[in-house]
Design goal:
TIM Barrel, Lyase, Ornithine Decarboxylase, Chain A, domain 1, 2 domains
Length: 380
C-alpha cells in the first residue's frame, strides 16, 4: 500500500521526522541532566511510546486511566496519571496498582486528598500521590507559596500516603513566541516547583520528585537545577501552534491528514476535499497567534507545503482549500487543472493532539515509503 492508494481521510505519521523529534528532546534532557517522562496524550499509540522509551525516556505520563491501563498491559510499569484524581476513579486506580503498576496519582485540593486517605484506609492499601503546583496561572494546581500546599501534603502524609513529588505544567508557554519569553517562563516553572518541594521537605514531608514540563519550556530551559524529571508530549509530532510558538519548523511536523480532492467551486476559488473537522478537529489554536493557519496547511502528497494556500474552512466531512490573499492567486480555471478530482493532498494540523484523536489508527510512513498501521487507544 502506498499513499496514493490509501482511502481518505487518513492520519499519516512521518516516522523520519518523528524519530528526529524524539532524539532532539531526549538529547536535550540528557544534556540538562534530568530524566524524561514523555506525555503520551498526544499520540496515544504504543508504537510511538516504545520509540520514546528506546531513545532513553523513563516511564510515561498519561491523561486518562485508559492510557494507563494500555501502557501497563504492554509492560510499562512507571506511570504518572497527570490529571487530578476524583473519588469515583480510585477503584480503577487501585486495581491497577494491585496488579503491579507503579501508578502515581495527582491532587491539588484538600477534598481530593481527604478522599484518597479515606479510600486507602478502607481498602487497607495505599497509592503514591503527587501534588500539582501552579507556577503560571494557566490551569490547575496550588501556588507554591499557598498554605493549601502544606495542608494537602500534611493530610496525605499523616494519612499514611506517600507524597512522591510535585508536578508543574507551564501551559501558558503556548501563548508565547520569543525565545527570551520562553526561557523566562521555563525558569519560573522550575523555580516555583522546586520551591514547593522545598516547603514540603522543610515541613517534614518527603518529596523526592520535582517534575516540570511543557514542550516549549522543555526546549527553552537554560538550566534545571533542583528538577528531577521533565514531561512533554506534543514535541513528538509538533504542529502549527508549536511552529508559531517558535520551537519547531514546518519541516519538523510529523503528523498530517491525507485527503482527496472531491470537487471545486471555481467562482469562489475553492478546492473541496474530503477531510473536514471530523478529520482535522475544530481546533483553531493558531487563530489566537500572530499567524493564523486556518484549519491547516495543505501540502502535496510528498509533504511539500503548497505556498500561498490554506485550508480556510471545514464542515463535518468537507474541507475548503483556497489561495490566501497574500499568496499566488490561481485563475478560476487553473484550480481544476492544478488540483484535479482525485488529487491527494496532506494537511498539516493546528493541534496534533486533537487531530490525532479523530482517528482510530495512524498510517506510519517510513522514509523508504513503506506504510505500517499503528493502532491508537481511545476513551477514558
Amino acid at each position: 500500500m502506498t499513499l496514493d492508494l490509501l482511502d481518505t481521510p487518513a492520519a499519516i505519521v512521518d516516522t523520519g521526522r518523528m524519530n528526529r523529534n524524539i532524539a532532539r528532546m531526549q538529547t536535550r534532557m540528557d544534556a540538562l541532566g534530568v530524566r524524561f517522562r514523555p506525555h503520551i496524550k498526544t499520540t496515544k499509540c504504543l508504537d510511538v511510546v516504545r520509540a520514546q522509551l528506546q531513545a532513553g525516556a523513563h516511564g510515561v505520563t498519561v491523561s486518562t486511566l485508559k492510557e494507563a491501563q494500555a501502557c501497563f498491559a504492554a509492560g510499562i510499569v512507571d506511570v504518572l496519571y497527570a490529571v487530578g484524581i476524583v473519588p469515583s476513579k480510585l477503584p480503577r486506580a487501585m486495581a491497577l496498582k494491585r496488579r503491579g503498576c507503579d501508578l502515581k496519582l495527582l491532587v491539588d485540593n484538600v477534598a481530593a486528598a481527604e478522599a484518597i486517605v479515606a479510600f486507602c484506609h478502607k481498602e487497607g492499601d495505599a497509592v503514591e500521590v503527587w501534588i500539582e503546583v501552579d507556577t503560571d496561572g494557566h490551569r490547575s494546581g496550588i501556588a507554591p507559596e499557598h498554605d493549601a500546599l502544606l495542608e494537602v501534603g500534611r493530610i496525605l502524609h499523616d494519612g499514611g500516603i506517600r507524597v512522591g513529588g510535585v508536578m508543574a505544567h507551564a501551559g501558558s508557554s503556548y501563548e508565547l513566541s520569543s525565545s527570551e519569553a520562553l526561557r523566562a517562563l521555563a525558569e519560573s516553572e522550575r523555580a516555583g516547583c522546586v520551591h514547593a518541594a522545598q516547603r514540603l521537605r522543610a515541613s517534614g514531608i518527603a518529596c523526592p520528585v520535582v517534575s516540570v514540563g511543557s514542550t516549549p519550556t522543555a526546549l527553552a530551559a537554560a538550566a534545571l537545577d533542583g528538577v528531577t524529571e521533565v514531561r512533554a508530549g506534543v514535541y513528538v509530532f509538533f504542529d502549527l501552534v508549536m511552529h508559531n510558538v517558535g520551537v519547531c519548523t514546518i519541516d519538523d511536523l510529523a503528523l498530517s491528514v491525507l485527503t482527496t480532492v472531491i470537487g471545486h467551486q471555481l467562482e469562489k476559488g475553492w478546492v473541496i476535499v474530503d477531510a473536514g473537522w471530523m478529520a482535522l478537529s475544530r481546533d483553531r489554536g493558531t487563530a489566537k497567534q500572530a499567524r493564523d493557519f486556518g484549519y491547516g496547511v495543505p501540502c502535496t502528497i510528498d509533504g511539500t507545503p503548497l505556498e500561498g494556500y490554506l485550508m480556510i474552512g471545514a464542515n463535518q466531512e468537507h474541507g475548503i482549500v483556497a489561495a490566501t490573499q497574500t499568496g499566488p492567486k490561481a485563475h478560476e480555471a487553473d484550480l481544476s487543472v492544478r488540483f484535479p478530482i482525485g488529487t491527494k493532498l496532506r494537511i498539516l494540523p493546528n493541534h496534533a493532539c486533537s487531530t490525532g484523536a479523530q482517528f482510530p489508527e495512524y498510517r506510519a510512513l517510513a522514509p523508504s515509503g513503506e506504510l505500517t498501521v499503528w493502532q491508537r487507544f481511545r476513551g477514558w
